[in-house]
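Morning, I've got a small favour to ask if you have a moment. The fold is given in discrete form, as structure tokens running alongside the sequence. I'd be grateful if you could look everything over and explain what you see. No rush at all, and the record is pasted right below.
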Amino acid sequence: MMVWINQKSCELQQGCTLKEAIELAQITPPFAAAVNAQFVPKTLYHQTLLNDNDKIELIVPITGG
């Protein structure tokens, strides 16, 4: 299936979880995750199943003044 991770297309196996997609993206904490503009708590990454054409946003906080 095809999903979008931070606006880049990515091919994943059917039944893939958000946790697996995050591992594929190789992003390091801290970050927040949203699927189709809905925030997903970290405790639910492993059970959040993805669907074809889902849009995943992995958002890294920016600090500064």
The helical segments are 18-25. The radius of gyration is 12 Å. The longest strand covers residues 55-59.
